[in-house]
Amino acid sequence: MAGTDDEAVATGDDDALYVLTAVLLTPAKFPSVLGDDYPEACAALDLAPLADGYGLVLGQDGEGARWTVVVDDVSLVAVAIAAWDCGMEQELSPDERTVVAALPGWPLDVAVAAPGVPAPHDPSPELTDLPPLAPPDTATWGPAQRRLGADEIALQWATWREQIDDGDFVQPGDEASKSEGAPSEASDAETSEGQTSEGETSEGAAGSASKEDGAGAGEPRSGVRRVLAEARAYVDTPPPLGRVRSSFATGDARTLRADGPGWSLVARTDDIAFVLLDEEPGEVLPVGRGPELPGLLEALDKMAVRPS
């Protein structure tokens, strides 16, 4: 097997795989669209959650059928992905001894196809007893799209952060907030209020950065409090592996990603946080630093899984 992220290369073998792309499936980095944590993402592919993880190689066979080849040589796949991200060509040819499984279909959307072979399609049932993999449904708002929205915010942090005016966050003793029926300091971290500012993501996974306590925003505020409470509980009782992940940001800061039942949180350790909820379709709820958010983010960062 050989290839790049945007051009498939045949090996000349009858069972050659035209490699289109590859992704990591490890505790620190996995396609979050597949689950809230690493074990859940592995279960979506019927794989055991090995500590070192896997590499997923997505491609087509000579007939154009979609296949996902699972390998345990994570370093090989990581090097190839890093090269592709830098615009470099890099061959990806896992040794057969590293192949864990060959699964029909693709668990993720792939925007390219191998040249010179039929259009991508599921393998014939005669070739496998397994049902073909398919990307999670993101046509309507739900867990998969909520996690994609969080991915987009983490990737485009500066763009989303620019939408939020720090002066709009509720401050202690803010009489205007009290007069509007907003709780003053009932939550551990400050949430924002005011008008909604639009901010479509490139994938449409999350719709708008919604400042809390606007019209009908009582439930979002309650939802944010629930998320912060559940995230705080992670510090005392570690959740499944991969529920909290930490990656590089600017300077000494880290980007934190935490997920739980029905929610996703994205934050910078030196800044604010954004929350997405299953029950709030397309809404992105900013959470100000307040008196306790910095400590919570610091504690989560200490327990988070980090890329090796």
From TrEMBL:
Region span, Disordered: 114-144, 167-222
Compositionally biased intervals (Low complexity): 127-140, 192-204
Top-rank lineage group of the source organism: Bacteria
Protein name: Integral membrane protein
Species this chain originates from: Streptomyces siamensis
Lineage, broadest ranks: Bacteria, Bacillati, Actinomycetota, Actinomycetes, Kitasatosporales
